[in-house]
């Protein structure tokens, strides 16, 4: 569940990471905790497929009990990448079912949030895309969370604007077969910012703000640092981070942010590409990431790393400890920890923005980066 109390009491937000579920969700919780994380993000199933297998109540109860035992919270679900909330026709119907399935899985395991990408309007205007997202989300909520439909918008979130070029009154794309038993709303949907490629929605703080302004205040935001960087938001210094946080506050509202995805980037600033790198091994760099983590307006938000998971648990634990050093503003200590990792294993050298690759590598993709087009379950895009 969402633990806003941590924020209100002035506590640091928890630090987690995305963990594959090949061994089951309970195993993912254990792997995260063993490495030093106290929050976790998982997929509800195959991130590139529509198939959904309902979870047995006994299995769901066991996962919730394990999360309590390990004190891992929040648990976050990342909805499948193939969902496009701004789509039409069959893809819209599939996306609605996919999101509903992710919400169902979140309810099963006690996840506080479901993070989802808004998607692309496929060449239509932003206004049309936003109207489609609003209609689809309303249909999903009406089907499985009917009691939450009347939730008032926040003061900064007026009702969805009508679009002169998308005035269809067609039924919601959510089919009657999607859910059979309405559930109480205990999971919050978070729309994630994008890198600004093509006609994707939410490709800048301002674009994310325009989207959220058309939705109920119960829908929040997930902010990904690599996506901000790809969209042209400089995060390489404390001053740059201050400027971006001010933009987010004006456009989105910091109170509407539920989760932060913390990732370095393996592509140049403003490339409109989404390629994650491990912290300190990309173009953002340790000083900027430390400034982001230590920013007083962000310190109380849950942090989820979506960088490639180390095969060696000890190395993953070292990366978790390094991230906590960054959160305390200890850039020198984090740099020393990264140097030790580099000496003991296959860690890329500094990123060369001119060559658009990591020094010492011969290919576009290297160990420690994730190109977001064909990902195995263990490697994550945000």
Key terms for this structure?
382 residues; alpha/beta; TIM Barrel; 8-stranded parallel barrel; 3-stranded antiparallel sheet; 11 helices; disordered N terminus; disordered C terminus
What does this structure look like?
This protein is α/β, with parallel strands linked by helices and 382 residues long. The chain has a single domain (4-371), classed as Alpha-Beta Barrel (TIM Barrel). The protein is 36% helix and 13% strand. It has 11 helices and 13 strands. The chain has helices at residues 4-8, 25-34, 57-70, 89-109, 126-144, 205-213, 225-230, 238-251, 286-294, 313-327, 331-344, and strands at 15-18, 39-42, 75-78, 113-117, 188-192, 220-224, 257-262, 264-265, 275-277, 303-305, 351-352, 357-358, 369-371. Helix 10 packs antiparallel against helix 11. The two termini are 21 Å apart.
Poorly predicted runs are 1-9, 148-182, 350-367, 371-380
Q: What Rg, in angstroms, do the CA atoms define?
A: 20 Å
Largest sheet: 8 strands, parallel, barrel
Mean pLDDT score: 84
CATH H-level superfamily: Divalent-metal-dependent TIM barrel enzymes
CATH T-level topology = TIM Barrel
Report strand order across the widest sheet: 1-2-3-4-5-6-7-10
Q: Number of helical runs?
A: 11
Label the CATH architecture. Answer: Alpha-Beta Barrel
Helical/strand content category: alpha/beta
Strand runs, count: 13
Count of the domains = 1
The CATH top-level class label: Alpha Beta
End-to-end CA span: 21 Å
Strand content: 5-15%
Morphology? globular
Q: How do the SSEs run, as a string of H and E? A: HEHEHEHEHEHEHHEEEHEHHEEE
> How helix-rich are the residues, as a percent range?
25-40%
